[in-house]
């Protein structure tokens, strides 16, 4: 634990990458500067500060005064292109899903036709396949197909069957519609519409099985498909793993706007509210959000999901909640009892003194809620034998960690993304917290009650 905490301790930056907006701010704060020169590796000026106190004071001032910055100004050189492309791809995917959800659920779309059951009986929709094809195509165009390896949730087996002809043509149309309007995000659409074979190829190209070495993307095209088909919360999750470590995470949450109260509204109620309060694309209130973080940056970011033909907006930094008193804390967990034992978490909540009722939310939106500071704890205790998949956690974990939180298994160990498609060796369950004090308390409660539980 001590090692884990010291790893999580914030280190003062050695240097800060600045954009023009920050440059103006700098002129009024020259007292902080020791030297100011152009960074040899980027176009951005870089300032070097002489001691830790100055660095910390300067960082605090920067945060207060320039909350909104561009991606390039923040993440330094490494993974800039990867992050930029991934964020754009997730924006495209969010809009695709919003459109499909709207058609499917709210405009009387053919649910029987467009929602299929997988072998494990979980649902899969045209959105799952369409997002997978779209993101796979965008990544391949940006980096070259030979450089892109993707672990993703869907395959083309059921989509290729003869009785799936109509759903396949819906997928092809959805992908082409989505890519043809991707120019608003600076993504060059295909010269001509993708053929069916190209769409199937893009989906099936996501056949990496991950592992401890090299670089691969991890994609959950629609996480929380049950929430998606119920008109509720869902997420698009894209992460980059290098040598077994998650280095980038991007999480699109199309039904999670700025106002955290929205998380409490169930299904149709959220939809009615969204229609009553007409979304203003310039504000944060009516639409979803995209969160992202780069490993080791100690910063996580959120952009509003813009509607209409607007592209990507500036990002705002997010931090986890500062609440460490269990009485005031809120914990999130899966909606479905089959996915995590509500009885067990209720016992944990009682023993650590959590008073608020659990926030049951579909998908990795739970990770987003912790990273944004809208809730303090996420717990998941799946039934014995269930193997957690890396795509259900990778993006969320790095975003929470960089926003200042902690994510481990119930034994306090970091989740291991280096063992293939599954989180092998996971000790009992997953605990994500805003801070170490809450995390310690939950782990202690798990230890105290595990043997008497039915898990
Ligand atoms: N039996 C069982 N136990 C544990 N976990 C399971 C189980 N079945 C499925 N899954 C995975 O859980 C993903 C959804 O997790 P959530 O936290 O969103 O659960 S819930 O839908 O709110 O109940 C879900 O992701 P999606 O398939 O992307 O929706 C699954 O990967
Ligand atoms: Mg999932």
From TrEMBL:
Cited SUPFAM superfamilies: Carbohydrate phosphatase (SSF56655)
Name used for this protein in its record: 3'(2'),5'-bisphosphate nucleotidase
Top enzyme category: hydrolase
Binding annotation for Mg(2+) 1: 153, 223, 392
Organism: Helianthus annuus
PROSITE patterns: IMP_1 (PS00629), IMP_2 (PS00630)
Residues annotated to bind Mg(2+) 2: 220
Cofactor: Mg(2+)
GO terms of molecular function: 3'(2'),5'-bisphosphate nucleotidase activity; metal ion binding
Record-stated family: Belongs to the inositol monophosphatase superfamily.
Gene3D superfamilies reported for this sequence: 3.40.190.80, Fructose-1,6-Bisphosphatase, subunit A, domain 1 (3.30.540.10)
Keyword Transcription: no
EC number from the UniProt entry: 3.1.3.7
Keywords, in A-Z order: Hydrolase, Magnesium, Metal-binding
């Amino acid at each position: 634990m001590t090692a884990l905490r010291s790893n999580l301790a914030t280190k003062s930056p050695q240097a800060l990458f600045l954009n023009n907006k920050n440059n103006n701010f700098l002129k009024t704060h020259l007292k902080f500067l020791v030297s100011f020169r152009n960074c040899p590796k980027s176009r951005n000026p870089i300032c070097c500060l002489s001691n830790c106190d100055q660095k910390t004071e300067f960082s605090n001032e920067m945060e207060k005064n320039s909350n909104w910055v561009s991606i390039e100004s923040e993440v330094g050189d490494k993974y800039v292109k990867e992050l930029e492309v991934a964020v754009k791809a997730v924006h495209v995917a969010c809009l695709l899903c919003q459109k499909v959800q709207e058609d499917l659920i709210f405009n009387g779309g053919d649910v029987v036709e467009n929602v299929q059951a997988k072998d494990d009986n979980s649902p899969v929709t045209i959105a799952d396949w369409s997002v997978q094809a779209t993101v796979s195509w965008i990544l391949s165009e940006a980096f070259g197909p030979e450089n892109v390896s993707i672990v993703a949730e869907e395959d083309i087996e059921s989509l290729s069957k003869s009785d799936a002809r109509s759903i396949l043509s819906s997928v092809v149309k959805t992908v082409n519609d989505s890519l043809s309007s991707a120019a608003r995000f600076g993504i060059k659409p295909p010269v001509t519409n993708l053929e069916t074979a190209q769409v199937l190829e893009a989906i099936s190209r996501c056949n990496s099985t991950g592992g401890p070495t090299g670089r691969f993307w991890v994609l959950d095209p629609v996480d929380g498909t049950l929430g998606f088909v119920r008109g509720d919360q869902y997420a698009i999750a894209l992460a980059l793993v290098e040598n077994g470590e998650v280095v980038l995470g991007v999480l699109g949450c199309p039904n999670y706007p700025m106002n955290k109260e929205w998380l409490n509204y169930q299904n149709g109620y959220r939809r009615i509210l969204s229609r009553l309060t007409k979304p203003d694309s310039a504000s944060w209130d009516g639409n979803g959000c995209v969160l992202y973080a780069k490993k080791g940056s100690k910063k996580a970011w959120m952009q509003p999901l813009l509607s209409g033909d607007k592209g990507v907006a500036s990002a705002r930094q997010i931090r986890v909640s500062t609440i460490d008193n269990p009485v005031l804390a809120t914990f999130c967990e899966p909606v479905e009892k089959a996915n995590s034992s509500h009885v067990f978490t209720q016992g944990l909540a009682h023993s650590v003194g959590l008073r608020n009722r659990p926030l049951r939310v579909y998908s990795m939106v739970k990770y987003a809620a912790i990273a944004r500071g809208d809730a303090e704890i996420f717990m998941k205790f799946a039934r014995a034998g269930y193997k957690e998949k890396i795509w259900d956690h990778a993006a969320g974990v790095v975003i929470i960690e960089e926003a200042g939180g902690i994510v481990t298994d119930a034994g306090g160990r970091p989740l291991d993304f280096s063992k293939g498609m599954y989180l092998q060796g996971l000790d009992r369950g997953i605990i994500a917290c805003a801070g170490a004090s809450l995390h310690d308390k939950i782990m202690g409660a798990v230890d105290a009650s595990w043997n008497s539980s039915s898990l």
